[in-house]
Amino acid sequence: MAPPSGLHSSSHPSDFETPFPKLVRSSTVPAGLRSTRTDPSHLAPEDAYAPLSPHRLRAFDATDNVSGAESRTGRLRRKGPSRSGSRRRKRFQKLLWVKQSYPDNYTDQATFLENLQRNPRVRPYDFWPLVADSTVIVQHVCSVILFVVCFVGIFQERVSPVAVVSWSSGATFAGWLLWDFWATQDARGAAGDEDARARIMRGGHAYREFRPPLRQDSSGLDPSSALNASTDHYPQPRHPLSGHADSTGFLAPGDAHSRSVSSFNSITSQTSMANIPNSLATPAPTTTTTTAHPDATDGHDQTTPSDHPQTRLFSSRFYVRLSTIKSAILIYFTLLGLSPILKSLTRSTSSDSIWAMSFWLLAINIFFFDYSGGSRSGVAAAAAATTTTPGKPMPVASLSTNAALMASTVLASRLPSTGQVFSLTLFSIQVFGLFPVFRQCARRRSWRYHVILTVLLVLGAGAGVGMILGDPHHHHGWPWKRGLVGMVVGCLIAAVAMGGCSWWLIGLQKYKNEIYGPWDPARPIIISRRHWEDE
Amino acid sequence: MAPTYNIAMVSDFFFPQPGGVESHIYQLSSKLRDRGHKVIIITHAYKGRTGVRYLTNGLKVYHVPFFVLYRSASFPTVFSFFPVFRNIVLRERIDIVHGHASLSSLCHEAILHARTMGLRTVYTDHSLFGFADAASIFANKLLKFSLSDVDHVICVSHTCKENTVLRASLDPLMVSVIPNAVVAENFKPLDPSELSSDAFSRRHPPPVRPPGPHDMITIVVISRLFYNKGTDLLTAAIPRILENHPNTRFIIAGDGPKAIDLEQMIEQNVLQDRVEMLGPIRHEEVRDVMVRGHIYLHPSLTEAFGTVIVEAASCGLYVVCTQVGGIPEVLPSHMTVFAKPEENDLVAATGRAIAALRANKVRTELFHEQVKSMYSWTDVAMRTERVYNGISGAISEAEFYGYDAANGAGSWSATRGRSGVQSFALIDRLKRYYGCGIWAGKLFCLCVIVDYLIFLALELLFPRDKIDVCPDWPKKARKSTGAVAGFSRN
C-alpha cells in the first residue's frame, strides 16, 4: 500500500498516528517573507551565484501563487486550533484513492506545491563572456552601418561607386583566398583523420556497435558495403568535428556563390565520407552522392590509403574553386543585365517611402540575423544529448538575408545611373551574402581574427558615419578630422552598448521566473530511436 | 434538511462527442439528480443534435448554436452567449452554474455572465497546462480572467490543483480536489459465465489467470496515439519488451498521428504475430479489450487524472504506468508499477510486472472490489454537493473553509474574501478583476462593465416576467428526507 516513492516522504498510511501540528499564523508565514528580501517570488542578485539552495526552495514552496500575493500565504493554513489541537488525525496524503478525514479543499502546508521547481535550468551569465558574445551583433550592426554609409556616399556623390565596388571586390577576393586557404588546411587535416578512421574500421570494426542490427557486413569489394560504411557515420555528426564543420560550413543555404549542387557533390564524394555527417545540414541525400561516384567509393576500399586522399583533396579543391568562379561570373553578369531594370523599379514611389521601407528591411535584417553561427553546433549537441533531436537551423535566417537584399534593391533604385545601381547591388551582395560567412569562419578559426575584425568594423563604421554627417558641400579633401571623431565616438558607443547591455541582461535575470512541476509534460528519454530512424 | 439546487453544467464538450470530460459531466449530473437536485446541461450544437434534448432520467441538454473553432471548442466571443444563456437560466431557475474544461470558451463565458446575473459559479478543471510556451501563457491569462470571480474550483487531482492555483492565482482554499470515478459495473473482470463458444471467444482465448511461467502474458495499451500520450516511448519499448520476454504479446487500441510509427516499428522488427493493433475502438468496447490482457501499459507523458488506469485496474489488470502528472495519486502501489518516462525504465518496469505476475505475487482478482470501494460517482456527487453547500452559504464559512472568518479574512474584508461567499456588487467584482495584471486588469474590468451594461439592456428588452418558467421533470423523492425543498436564492 506504499505510495510511490519520490512523491511522498512517508510510506504507510497506518503509521500516521502523529498529532497534526498546530498551525498558527506566524508559523505558516513562509520564511522568505520574514527575511530582508522584499519579494520572495523574485530572484535576488545572489541567486546568480548560488542558484536556489534547498532552504530557499522550501520558502518558495509555501507561497501560493506566482504573482507573489503575500497576504494570501498567511491563509494557507486551515483547520484552526480549535479542531486539531486535541484530536489525533492521520497525516494528510496526496492520494486520491485513500478516504481521508480532511475536506476536499484542504491545503496541506507540508506537501502543497512541494514539487514546484523555479528556474531549475537557469544558467547565470558572466559579464565578460557575455560581452565577448555580443561582438557578433556589433559586427553585424557595423557592417549594416557601413553599407548605409556607402549608399549615402554614393547618393550624395561624395564617393565614386566604382571605387566602392572595386575596394569591396578586392576585399572579397582576398577574403575568399583566405577562406580557401583555411578550408584546404582543414580538409587536409580531416582527410588524414578520416584515413585513420577508415583503417580502424577495416581492421577492428570499431564502429560496429553504432550500427543498427540489420546492416550487412562491410567486407571487401562490394560497392554497397562502401555505401554502408559511409552511412554508418551518421551517428557521428553529433560530435562536432571542427575541421569538417569549416569545410562545409560554407555550403549552408543562403551562401550564394557555392550553392550549386555540383560543387557540393564533388566535395562530399571526393573528400571522402568525412563530409557526409555535415551534409545533414544540407538537403542533398548522401546515398545519391556516394552511388553517383563509384570510383570514389571503390577507391576507398581497395587502394592503399597513403596517397589517395591528397590527390582527391586537390582535385576537389580545384572543382570547388572552379564552380565558385563560375557562379561569381554568373552573378556579375546577371546583375549587370538587371541594373537598368532595377534603376527604374521604384520610380513611381516617393523617396520617403523608400527610406522608411529600407529602414524597416534593414531592421528586419538585424533582428532576424542568425547570430548563433558557429556556436550552434555546440548548442545542438547539448540539445541532442538531452532530447535526442538534432538541432535544426534557424528558419528565419534566410528572411534576414532576403530583407537586406531587398533593402539594397530599393535603395539602389533611387540612384540615378546604371553604373551606380550595379555597384551598390553588387556591394550589398558582398556585404550581406558573403561577408557574414567570412565573419563566421574567422570567428571559428581564431578568436584573435574575430576581435581584429570587430575592431576594424567598429572603427570603419564610426569613421564612415562621422564623415557622412559632415556638410556635403565642403569638398576640401578628405574630412579626416570628422572621421577620427567618428571613430572615437563609435568605439565609445560600441563599448558602452556592449558593456551596458550585458550588465542590463545580468540585472534582468532576477525577474526570471520559470515554473516547472509535475504538471509539465515529461520529456521522454528514448535511446533506441536511432535504430529505426536513421535508416 | 439538505437544500437542493438547480444546477446548470456548461461545457463545450458533451455527448455525442466521446471523452473523459463528457462522461464526467454526464455521470456527475445523473448522480446529482439522484440526490434530488435539478441539473441541466448546456453545450453547443453538434452536427445532427440541436435544440433541447432529454437524456436518461430526464437530464435536459441545451444545444446552443455556436461556431465551432477547433476540436469542438467553440469560438471565443466574450458576450455573444449572454442573451441565450440568460434566457435558459431564467427559464430553468438556475442557482448554480458549473463550468467544465479549461479549453471550453462556452464555460468561461457562462461563468462571467452568471456572476453578472448574480449566480453562484463553480468551475472544474480537467487538464494540466505548462507555463513555458506562448500559447499556455495566453490560455493562463484567460483562465485568470474567468476565474477571478468564480466562487469555487474543483480539480480532479492534487497535481491539477497545484497547477490551477498557479495558473489562475487562486486561493488554494477555494480549490477542492474531487477525483473522477469509474462506473465499476461497466469494468468488471472477465466472468467465466461470459465465455461462450462463439467464434470470437475461440479466436481470442481468455487469458490464463494466474499465468504460469510459460503462459502467454498479454499487455494491453488503450490510448489515443499522440505525442503527449507517450506513443514514442511505447514504440521504442515494445521491441525490447518482446525481446526480453518470449511469451508476451501486445494489444494496442486507439488511433492517432503516431499510429504510423507503431506500424513501422512492427514491420521493421517483424512483430506482426505478437503485436495486435485494433485501431480506434468505442468506449463501450474498452472493457472487452481490457479483459483480454494481464497488464495494462500506460506510457503517457502528462495526465491530470488518468481514468483509464482506474478502469484497467477495475478490470483486474496489473497497471504499468509512467510517473507523471496526477497518475501517482490515483492507484495504490500494489496495483501499479511506476516507471520514469524513460525507455529503459519503462522496459524494466514492465519486466518487473511480468515477473510479479508469473510468480503469482499480485492478487489481481481482488482489484475490482478494491477499485469499486475507492471510486464511485455517488461519492463524487456528494463531495460536489458539499461545494455547492459551501458557496451558497448552506454550511458556514468557517466549516467550509476551516478557519475563523473574522480572523482569517483580515485584508479581504472588502470583498468578503476570495474564498468567502463572494459579494455580487459590481465594484467588488471589479476589484477582483483589476488585480489580474497591469494592462489585463483594466481590460478585464472593461469587459465586466460591458457585460453588466448588456445585462441591463437585456433586462429592459426581455423583461424577466415575460420569460416562461419551464416545468421541472418529475423528481424521484429523496430517500432520507422524502420531500424536496426548493432552494431560494438569497
Automatic annotation (TrEMBL), chain A:
Membrane-spanning parts: 127-155, 318-342, 354-373, 450-469, 484-506
Recorded superkingdom: Eukaryota
UniProt keywords, alphabetically: GPI-anchor biosynthesis, Membrane, Transmembrane, Transmembrane helix
UniProt xrefs under InterPro entries: Plno_GlcNAc_GPI2
Biased composition (Basic residues): 74-89
Signal sequence, renumbered to the chain: none
Region (Disordered): 1-48, 60-89, 209-252, 275-310
Pathway: Glycolipid biosynthesis; glycosylphosphatidylinositol-anchor biosynthesis
Family: Belongs to the PIGC family.
Primary residence: membrane
Chain intervals with Polar residues compositional bias: 216-233
Composition-biased stretches (Low complexity): 1-13, 281-294
Protein name: Uncharacterized protein
Source organism per UniProt: Humicola insolens (Soft-rot fungus)
Topological category with respect to the lipid bilayer: Multi-pass membrane protein
Cell location: Membrane
TrEMBL record, chain B:
Enzyme class, first EC level, given as a word: transferase
Protein name: phosphatidylinositol N-acetylglucosaminyltransferase
Function text: Catalytic subunit in the complex catalyzing the transfer of N-acetylglucosamine from UDP-N-acetylglucosamine to phosphatidylinositol, the first step of GPI biosynthesis.
EC number: 2.4.1.198
Keywords: Glycosyltransferase, GPI-anchor biosynthesis, Transferase
Location of the PIGA GPI anchor biosynthesis domain: 44-133
InterPro entries: Glyco_trans_1, PIG-A/GPI3, PIGA_GPI_anchor_biosynthesis
Source organism of this protein record: Humicola insolens (Soft-rot fungus)
Pathway(s): Glycolipid biosynthesis; glycosylphosphatidylinositol-anchor biosynthesis
Stretches assigned to the Glycosyl transferase family domain: 215-347
Pfam families xrefs: Glycos_transf_1 (PF00534), PIGA (PF08288)
Lineage: Eukaryota, Fungi, Dikarya, Ascomycota, Pezizomycotina
